[in-house]
Design a protein that fits this description.
mainly alpha, MetI-like fold, transmembrane, MetI-like, BP-dependent_transpt_permease, transport, cell inner membrane
């Protein structure tokens, strides 16, 4: 047998590596991921990417986009009824709609995860009492609950963020509570508990990896709901106030110009639709990749 022979051990991919391979094989998911990265870059660098100020009059009133015969190359998406550059307002408005939606979704997920895990791993009165409270709160649509909170506290950016945060927390709690409670009673968890495993070990090594799909699904849904609720409250005049360039507020301020200057309505609407679509594509791709990796 040659002394210089080389033996190559076959490496078995981990669950995360298999999930990433499955995700990369999904062309729609990869397209959504690249678009999501683009949105994140735009949101973070909006102040530097915007060619003009979002609230300053820099051009003629209702100037068409640059591809129109009456448009100008300096105003790629045209101007609104006050002569403000729409491209700049869309870029800076991404922070108020998409950026705030990410912030609210992550904040609500942290609280929802903590309470849902504690409730799911507990038994008796506490779990039952929380279950009844969640049934009551979830019977109210999130947008309606946000409108009630904003109507009580008054319009404004801080108030809509708090309202949507409060509306999203019960959804996370219910989803995590149901998933954890279903895992706790399974045989592998009971066997690990009989072997002396404590709750933290069970949670970190057994339960959380198996409910990761649920968490990602709820996170995706929460970001989409937050985007739509922020835009809806802005459209109704309860969210970001003029002259802030929040996408929903831009849509509401320009709705009367839909026939005279349709680009002032279409572009903010497309921005909202695009952001929700991208988030859902990435979320569905992650869910399918993790499910395939587990199988």
């Amino acid at each position: 047998m040659p002394s210089n022979s080389v033996y190559q051990e076959e490496t078995i991919p981990t669950q995360w590596e298999r999930a990433w391979q499955n995700f990369r094989a999904n062309s729609l998911a990869m397209f959504g991921l690249w678009c999501l990265l683009f949105l994140l870059i735009v949101t973070i660098g909006a102040q530097w990417l915007a060619p003009y100020s979002a609230i300053q009059q820099v051009g003629e009133l209702l100037m068409p986009p640059s591809w129109d015969n009456s448009g100008h190359v300096n105003f790629f998406f045209g101007t609104d009824d006050l002569g403000r550059d729409i491209l700049s307002r869309l870029l800076i408005g991404s922070q108020l709609t998409f950026g705030y939606a990410l912030l609210v979704a992550f904040a609500s997920s942290i609280i929802g995860l903590l309470i849902g895990i504690l409730a799911g791993m507990s038994q008796g009165l506490k779990s039952s009492f929380l279950n009844h409270i969640l049934d009551t709160v979830l019977s109210i649509p999130s947008l309606l609950l946000a409108i009630i909170v904003v109507a009580y506290m008054g319009p404004g950016e801080t108030h809509i963020l708090l309202a949507i945060w409060l509306a999203l927390i019960p959804r996370f709690i219910r989803a995590v509570y149901t998933a954890v409670h279903a895992e706790v009673v399974k045989d592998y968890v009971i066997a690990a508990r009989l072997d002396g495993a404590n709750n933290f070990y069970l949670l970190w090594n057994s339960i959380l990896p198996n409910i990761l799909t649920t968490i990602i699904t709820e996170m995706t849904r929460a970001i989409s709901i937050a985007i739509l609720d922020i835009a809806a409250l802005g459209f109704l005049g309860l969210g970001a106030q003029t002259p802030l360039p929040e996408w929903g507020a831009m849509l509401g301020d320009s709705i009367e110009l839909i026939y005279l200057a349709p680009w002032t309505v279409t572009l903010p609407g497309l921005a909202i639709m695009f952001s929700v679509l991208v988030v859902n594509l990435v979320g569905d791709g992650l869910r399918q990749a993790l499910n395939a990796g587990i199988d």
